[in-house]
Amino acid sequence: MARTKEFDERKALDAAMQLFWEKGYEATSLSALTERMGLQRSSFYATYGDKRSLFTTALQKYSETRIAYLKAKLQGHASVRESIKSCFKDIIDIAYQTNPSFGCFCVNTIVELAPHDSQFSQITSRYQEQLQILVRQALEKGILAGEFSRDLDALAVSHSLIIFMNGLLVTLKTKPERQFIDESLSMMFQLLK
After folding, report:
1. Which pTM value belongs to this model?
2. CATH architecture of the domain covering 59-191
């Protein structure tokens, strides 16, 4: 007779995701994972397979959760311009309120693993594409509503915003002077005309 699991898989996955987010894939040991997740190694292997499989599951969960959050955020204001600004403001506020700042799990994975691992490159590329689509759709909505010029190239601007967001997330890990970030963001928003 099969034994029933004596742990909450969702909580264990959340704990693993947080640890991978904090330390990255390579720096996270199996011992640290099982301790953080509250599991014996046998339960870990039986449920998640191995460290790589668990990382993949955690990264996909993070991606889905983050896309859902940003979709709601972009739809949460009457003004598209304000919804986009709010997304960036949240990123900055969290970085300066959290010590240390772990950035974005997907962007961290792009930096650590995507250059030499095709599976993680595909997962993070898919995340970036979904993010770009959300931003482009928001910009198109703003154009139709008359909030932005009809000449605004929603595709090009959405690409620029995502590239800026990724760079911002990496830069914020070093907590530069806030004025430097605010001035850069202000310059970026000049694209939204």
Report:
1. 0.90
2. Orthogonal Bundle (1.10)
